[in-house]
Amino acid sequence: MPPSCCGYLSQYTHHHLVAFLLTFFSYVLLHASRKTFSNVKVSISAQWTPSIRNDSLSPGETWGENHLFEDEKQATLFLGALDSIFLFSYAVGLYLSGVIGDRVNLRYVLCFGLCGSAAVEFVFGTLTEWLHIYNIYLYCGLWVLNGLLQSAVWPCVVAVMGNWFGKTGRGFVFGLWSACASVGNILGAFLASSVLKYGYEYAFLVTSVVQFAGGVVVFFGLLTSPKEVGLSLESETGLSPVETDTDSHRPLMSDEEEEVEVEVEVYGRQHQSIQQPDEPLDEAPQAIGFCQAFCLPGVLPYSLAYACLKLVNYSFFFWLPFYLSNNYGWQEAQADRLSVWYDVGGIIGGTVQGLISDFLGKRAPVLATSLALAMAALVGYSRSPNDQLINAVLLAITGFFIGGPSNMISSAISADLGRQEALRGSKEALATVTGIVDGTGSIGAAGGQYLVSLLESKLGWMCVFYFFVVMTGGSIVFITPLLVKEVRAMWRDRRAMRRQL
């Protein structure tokens, strides 16, 4: 039986808390700025299409001098294409940045991604509007660059978290931590809706400035590994981390004083073994190769499952405010605020499902159950009436069963895969494996965004939701071999326990 939550916390120092918070808010700020684009699509579409002309007052060229497209449908298709362009470049960047993250200081890569992406978003959304520069090729080029820069962030923050938090309680800790994307979506929605009345360019301005400042804080404040303060990496067998510097160890929660004496004895024995000349502390483990990481057990099926699931999750991310405004006729600011309920459901889902998977000791059964219920939730949400309260409740339920599994695969499961026994002692695979899983997921999501805009324009939103149901079912299919294996293992363990009784 896994330890209690107090048992989890008693292992950790204030350094663990700082690493948790800095990586958490790094991705919060990144997702807040990313969410801005989806929250202002209606405003951007209106800016890129011509206004109603009145030739008696002014020549037609003046009324449509800024327009890129003839009508709203063309603008919508281009917005979908921009989403796909971003995700394809993001996917390619994830494969590269994961490999780079295992070979270069994670803090440098993370800071470069945050600050560089903030600068690109400022140019894309704010500077082009201030200077009245409207060019399709410029927008595409900037969004390719933005995808590459943003791809540097996720593998790095997962690798840092994997360094600081071992397998004990990983489902709960990472489930709680992976709420960073949903919290970022909520923050981005509120920031965008609060300044949208002044123009969409100010939404980009606010989020890009905050993100750049966050990158500077990360550069000067983040410790990427316990070794930087004299602590060793926590064992993947679930044992507590070994202290190598008593001054740096300040527990967040202490148990009884008797347990402290036991810890001192354990520390003494461990410290003696650490000082052995045969095991130098400063020797850095060798980074794993890309192909070798791809062939690790579980990486391919979870990557393919995540490709299907991320398509659905990111379709909600990119298109939900637009759908609420377009389908129900609600104002853009109202749609932005209502869309946060999907992320609220995702936050709760990731934490609860991660905790359940810790107690079961298995991830796949929890994942498959949630995905099966997600298919029913999607069908239910597609038939939501024109009522904001009912819509919010259904959104939260849908987010619980879709966002929860998505958070599990991209964080806790990726960390499990990057620290499995098949690595034979190599600890420099976390960023590479995370990049592979998230990169494959982003390829699926990239292809899906243009399909969403195409299906919506040709067949309507109902067909889009049926498409989501099919892709969610595809996720279950890909993890079925792992599900069967883990269920059999659980059954064997249960039978063994019965025999012992």
TrEMBL record:
Entry membrane topology: Multi-pass membrane protein
GO cellular component terms given for this protein: endoplasmic reticulum membrane; lysosomal membrane
Listed transmembrane segments: 12-30, 75-96, 108-130, 136-160, 172-196, 202-223, 364-383, 389-409, 464-484
Pfam families membership: MFS_1
Domain of life from the UniProt record: Eukaryota
A single MF term (Gene Ontology): xenobiotic transmembrane transporter activity
Database matches in CDD domains: MFS_SLC37A3 (cd17342)
PANTHER family the UniProt entry points to: MAJOR FACILITATOR SUPERFAMILY TRANSPORTER 16, ISOFORM B, SUGAR PHOSPHATE EXCHANGER 3
Homology family: Belongs to the major facilitator superfamily. Organophosphate:Pi antiporter (OPA) (TC 2.A.1.4) family.
Protein name: Sugar phosphate exchanger 3
